[in-house]
C-alpha cells in the first residue's frame, strides 16, 4: 500500500506547528518580562531592548504567517493548544473533580 504525501500540505503543516510553538514561547517570554518589570529587576535600557526584541519577533511572525497563508491555521492550532493547557491546569487544580469524572465515566463540567 503506497502512501501519498502532499509536499505543500506537509510543509504548511510543519511551518504552522513551528510558528505556533514560537508564539507560545513568545507569550511565555512576555509574561516573564512583565514579572521582571513589575519586580523592578530590569533597567530602563533592558526594558527597551526587551520590548524592541519582542516587537520585532511579533512582526516577523506576522509576516511569516501572512507570506505563507497560515494565519488561520496557526490561530486554530494555538487555540487547540490553549484548550489542552487549560484542561491540564484544571486537572492539576481540581483533582477530586477529575477523579469523579473518571469514576463516573463522563465530564462533570
Number of strands: 0
Shape: flat
Proportion in helices: over 70%
Rg calculated over all Cα atoms: 20 Å
Please, how many helices? 4
Order of H and E elements: HHHH
Approximately how much beta-strand content do the residues carry?
under 5%
Explained architecture:
The protein has 109 residues and is mainly α. It has four helices and no strands. It has helices at residues 7-38, 44-68, 71-93, 95-104. α1 packs antiparallel against α2 and α1 (7-38) packs across α3 (71-93). The longest helix is centred in the N-terminal third of the chain and has 32 residues, at 7-38. The radius of gyration is 20 Å and the shape is flat. The mean pLDDT is 87.
Kindly summarize this structure in a few lines.
This protein is mostly helical. The protein contains 4 helices and no strands. The longest helix is centred in the first third of the chain and has 32 residues, at 7-38.
What would the keywords be for this entry?
single chain; 109 residues; mainly alpha; flat
Chain-wise SSE layout:
Layout: H1 7-38, H2 44-68, H3 71-93, H4 95-104
